[in-house]
């Protein structure tokens, strides 16, 4: 997934000073952002109110969109550093290509996990022959210092653990929840899971008091800790819980994201994560000069050009504004 903002701000994120040790219920609205030729996403993280949830540092929710007579998602090759991308679909198909030679069609319920490490480029497209509906989420996970220069990699998992009962189905995406463990590689303590809730169903999940959590409504209205959450919003829950109640009057689905507060300060700009503004500048120059990032083979079209860096110097900011 790419940030296609033509004038993206520099953001310094991370650090524990902005994370309280108590539960909160902070409903954060998304903003509509065009992505590629025909897709509009709801950008929920980073936002004016919150920049990270554990190591999760970027969340886009899109659809459900009628793409029966549309090209669907069309995101040209673009670079990443210092992060993992998590591709998650509820409806439709996405063709992933990257600069290490991966080519994979992603479908609902499967995990596409790309580790950028020191540098990778990829493209995302709806296949020429695709379904009528496109609906999903794209997320980034910041890599800690000891792993952020690792070799790039791509993993595709179709056998994610699932547990159903009482009208609630839990599918683990990353990390661990309620005894379910994802096969996806993680580099810091975190969790990502999708819960599908039947009409009138409710559950109480065991959660880690030291994790901060947030809930992203994917479909329908879901009540999380007594707060109604609808698509287009993200409920930040903070830390300090050992259990979390989730229910739905009508059928719905929610993604639960969480993790230990990310202690390191990171710098995010466009599709790069680094530690300083100078480092980000080097990544941008490498992309523009054809260095560091290999070619995405098989994509018919031009790659994305990097936007200009802002003239203003990076101002230190915490996890929340």
From TrEMBL:
PANTHER family, A to Z = PIRIN, PIRIN-RELATED
Query: What Gene3D superfamilies does the database record attribute to this sequence?
Result: Jelly Rolls (2.60.120.10)
What cofactor does this protein call for? Fe cation
Record keywords: Iron, Metal-binding
> Per UniProt, where does Fe cation bind?
78, 80, 122, 124
Q: Which GO terms describe its molecular function?
A: metal ion binding
User: What is the protein name given in its UniProt record?
Assistant: Pirin
Q: Which family does it belong to?
A: Belongs to the pirin family.
Q: Which domain of life is it from?
A: Bacteria
- Which organism does this record belong to? Stackebrandtia albiflava
């Amino acid at each position: 997934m790419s940030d296609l903002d033509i004038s993206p701000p520099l953001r310094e994120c991370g650090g524990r000073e902005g994370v309280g040790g108590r539960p909160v219920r902070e409903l954060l609205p998304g903003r509509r952002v065009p992505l590629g030729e025909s897709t509009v996403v709801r950008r929920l993280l980073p936002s004016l109110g919150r920049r990270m949830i554990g190591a999760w540092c970027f969340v886009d929710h899109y659809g459900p969109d009628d793409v029966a007579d549309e090209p669907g998602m069309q995101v040209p090759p673009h670079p990443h550093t210092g992060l993992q991308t998590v591709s998650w679909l509820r409806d439709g198909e996405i063709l992933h290509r990257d600069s290490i030679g991966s080519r994979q069609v992603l479908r609902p319920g499967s995990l596409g996990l790309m580790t950028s490490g020191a540098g990778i480029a990829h493209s995302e497209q709806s296949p020429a022959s695709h379904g009528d509906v496109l609906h999903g989420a794209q997320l980034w996970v910041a890599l800690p210092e000891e792993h952020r220069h690792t070799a790039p990699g791509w993993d595709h998992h179709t056998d994610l653990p699932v547990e159903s009962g009482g009208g609630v189905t839990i599918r683990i995406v990353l990390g661990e929840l309620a005894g379910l463990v994802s096969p996806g590689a993680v580099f810091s303590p975190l969790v990502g899971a999708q819960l599908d809730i039947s009409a009138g169903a409710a559950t109480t999940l065991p959660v880690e008091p030291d994790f901060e959590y947030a809930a992203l409504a994917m479909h329908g209205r879901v009540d999380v800790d007594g707060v109604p959450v609808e698509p287009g919003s993200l409920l930040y829950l903070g830390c300090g819980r050992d259990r979390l109640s989730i229910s739905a009057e009508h059928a719905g689905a929610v993604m639960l994201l969480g993790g230990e507060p990310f202690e390191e300060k990171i710098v995010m700009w466009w599709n790069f994560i680094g530690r300083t503004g100078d480092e980000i500048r080097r990544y941008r120059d490498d992309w523009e000069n054809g260095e560091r990032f290999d070619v995405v083979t098989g994509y018919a079209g031009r790659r994305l050009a990097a936007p200009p860096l802002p003239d203003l110097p990076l101002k230190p900011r915490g996890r929340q504004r």
